[in-house]
Design a protein that fits this description.
The N and C termini lie far apart (about 75 Å). The chain has a 3-stranded mixed sheet with strand order 1-2-3. With about 160 residues, the protein is mainly alpha-helical. Helix 5 packs across helix 6 (about 115-135). The protein has a domain at about 35-100. The chain has helices at about 1-30, 50-55, 55-65, 90-95, 100-110, 115-135, 135-140, 145-155, 160; strands spanning about 40, 70-75, 80-85. The longest helix is centred in the N-terminal third of the chain and has 27 residues, at about 1-30. Helix content is about 65%, strand content about 10%.
C-alpha cells in the first residue's frame, strides 16, 4: 500500500512539473515573431523540391502571387526564404541574425572541396578576391558576355514564358 502511494505521489509530481513546463513555454515563449509562409509540398522530406525543380522561376512567381513578397520553400530538407520586394532587402541585410559566412559555408565547401576549418580560415581572403574580380574596374570585362547572354535569353522567348 505504501509503495503505491509513493508511486502515485511521484506520478503526480511528474505531471505537475510537465504541466508547469508546458505552461511556461506557452506563456513565456516569443509571441510577436511573425514567420513568412512556409511552402512544404506533399512529400515530407522532399517538400516542394519536385515542383520547384521542374520550373523554378514559374514556381517562385506563383508562390509570390499566392503568398506575397516574402515566403519560404522547404525542398530536399532545406529551407529557402525568398525576398521578392527590393524594399525588404535593407531590413534583411542589416539584420543581426544574418550571417553570410554561415550562409555560403556549405556551397563554398562543396564547390571547392575545402574542409570546414580551411573554409573559415580562408573565407575573408576568398571573399576579397571575388569582390576584387567583380569590382567596377574589372566589371567591363564581363559586361559584353553578359549582354550577349541576356539578348539571347530575351530573343529565345523564355522571358515571355515566365511573365
Amino acid at each position: 500500500m505504501a509503495d503505491s502511494v509513493e508511486l502515485l505521489q511521484a506520478g503526480f509530481y511528474l505531471v505537475v512539473l510537465l504541466l508547469i513546463a508546458l505552461l511556461s513555454n506557452h506563456f513565456l515563449g516569443a509571441k510577436n515573431v511573425i514567420y513568412p509562409p512556409l511552402i512544404k509540398g506533399w512529400v515530407p522530406w522532399l517538400g516542394c523540391a519536385f515542383d520547384f525543380g521542374e520550373a523554378p522561376l514559374n514556381f517562385v512567381r506563383e508562390s509570390w502571387l499566392k503568398h506575397g513578397a516574402i515566403f519560404t520553400l522547404y525542398a530536399a530538407g532545406q529551407r529557402m526564404t525568398f525576398l521578392t520586394d527590393v524594399n525588404d532587402f535593407p531590413l534583411f541585410f542589416n539584420s543581426a541574425q544574418a550571417d553570410f559566412q554561415r550562409a555560403v559555408e556549405d556551397v563554398g565547401r562543396n564547390t571547392s572541396g575545402m574542409s570546414k576549418s580551411d573554409f573559415f580560415a580562408n573565407h575573408a581572403k576568398v571573399h576579397d578576391l571575388v569582390k576584387g574580380k567583380l569590382s567596377t574596374s574589372n566589371l567591363h570585362k564581363l559586361v559584353p558576355k553578359i549582354g550577349r547572354q541576356l539578348e539571347e535569353y530575351i530573343s529565345s522567348g523564355m522571358y515571355a514564358k515566365i511573365l
